[in-house]
Structure to design on (313 residues):
C-alpha cells in the first residue's frame, strides 16, 4: 500500500499565491496524530507556532505535546469565539487545518492576513465531507488518497496543493484506512511545508469530472443496515466501512432477519474447505450467527441484542 509520489509540486504554474505575504507565524488547528505530526514538522522551521483544538477529547495528544515542547495551546469548542479569534489576526499567518471540525466561514477566509490550508482524507472531489474512509471502502474503490488544499467557504472545494494516492487492500477496515491516510498526510505536509513558508507553491482547481460526491457526518452506508440481496463482497465491504475498532465514529452494523433486529458484534470472512458447485449466494441464520456463503468463501456475522421488528417497520 505504498503511496504514490507527491504530484502537487509538478502541476502547471497557476493559482500561485503571489497576492499573499510570506507567513510570519503558523497556527495548527486540529487534533490527534496528524496535528502532532504537523506540529513536529513546523517546529523545525524558524517561525513561531501555536495550536488550537476545537474538539473535546478524553485525552489530547496535541495538548500533551504542546506542554512538553513549550508551544502555545488553547482549546475553543464554540464556533463564534473561534471565528472572532481568526478575524482578529493581523500578522501574516499560515493556518494548517489538520483533522479539524471547524468550518471556516467566508468572513474568516477574507482576512488577508490568513492563508488557510486543509487536510482531506480522500482524493478530491470524490468523498468530500466527513468519514471519507467509510465511503471509499463501502463503494469498493480500489484507490483513494489524501489531499492538502486551500480552504474555501464551501467544504472541500479549494484548489489542490498536493495529493497522494493510497491503494485499498481487500481486507482494510475504515480504521485501517484512516490511520494510513494520516500517515501519508503527515509525509505530504512535510514535503510541501518549505514552499508554504516561502509562499512559492502552486495549486490547481478541483476537477469536477472526477466522480464528485459529498457525505455528511450523519450519513451511514445503507442507513447502517445489511441488505441480504447484496453480493458477499459488497456485504463485506459494508462491514469494513463501519469498522473503526473501539472508536464509535458511526453506529454499528445492524440486520433484520426472522422478524428480529440484531446488532452485528463481530464478523469474519473465511475460505471454505468444501466448495459448492451451485452458483449464487446462500444465507442462513444459525444460533446468533448469520452466514452468507458463496461457492468458495463465507462471511460470518455474530449477532446479539435481538428485538422484535414492529409491524409498521
Amino acid at each position: 500500500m505504498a503511496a504514490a509520489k507527491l504530484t502537487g509540486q509538478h502541476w502547471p504554474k497557476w493559482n500561485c499565491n503571489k497576492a499573499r505575504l510570506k507567513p510570519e507565524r503558523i497556527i495548527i488547528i486540529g487534533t490527534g496524530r496528524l496535528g502532532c505530526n504537523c506540529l513536529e514538522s513546523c517546529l523545525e522551521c524558524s517561525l513561531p507556532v501555536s495550536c488550537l483544538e476545537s474538539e473535546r477529547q478524553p485525552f489530547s495528544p496535541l495538548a500533551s505535546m504542546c506542554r512538553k515542547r513549550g508551544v502555545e495551546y488553547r482549546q475553543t469548542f464554540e464556533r463564534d469565539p473561534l471565528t472572532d479569534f481568526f478575524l482578529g489576526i493581523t500578522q501574516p499567518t499560515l493556518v494548517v487545518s489538520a483533522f479539524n471540525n471547524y468550518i471556516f466561514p467566508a468572513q474568516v477566509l477574507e482576512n488577508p492576513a490568513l492563508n488557510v490550508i486543509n487536510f482531506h482524507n480522500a482524493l478530491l472531489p470524490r468523498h468530500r465531507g466527513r468519514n471519507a474512509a467509510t465511503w471509499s471502502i463501502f463503494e469498493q474503490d480500489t484507490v483513494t488518497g489524501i489531499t492538502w488544499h486551500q480552504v474555501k467557504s464551501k467544504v472541500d472545494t479549494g484548489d489542490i496543493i498536493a495529493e497522494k494516492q493510497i491503494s485499498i487492500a481487500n481486507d482494510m477496515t475504515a480504521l485501517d484506512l484512516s490511520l494510513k491516510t494520516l500517515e501519508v498526510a503527515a509525509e505530504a505536509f512535510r514535503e510541501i511545508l518549505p514552499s508554504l513558508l516561502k509562499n512559492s507553491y502552486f495549486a490547481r482547481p478541483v476537477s469536477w469530472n472526477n466522480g464528485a460526491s459529498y457525505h455528511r457526518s450523519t450519513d451511514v452506508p445503507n442507513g447502517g443496515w445489511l441488505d441480504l440481496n447484496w453480493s458477499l463482497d459488497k456485504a463485506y465491504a459494508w462491514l469494513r466501512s463501519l469498522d473503526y475498532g473501539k472508536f464509535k465514529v458511526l453506529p454499528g452494523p445492524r440486520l433484520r432477519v426472522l422478524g428480529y433486529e440484531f446488532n452485528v458484534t463481530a464478523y469474519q470472512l473465511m475460505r471454505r474447505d468444501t466448495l459448492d458447485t451451485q452458483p449464487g449466494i446462500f444465507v442462513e441464520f444459525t444460533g446468533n450467527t448469520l452466514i452468507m456463503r458463496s461457492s468458495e468463501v463465507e462471511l460470518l456475522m455474530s449477532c446479539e441484542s435481538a428485538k422484535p421488528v414492529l409491524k409498521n417497520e
About this structure: The first strand starts at residue 25 and ends at 30. Helices lie at 32-42, 61-69, 79-87, 106-109, 132-138, 174-198, 232-241. Residues 174-198 form the longest helix (25 residues).
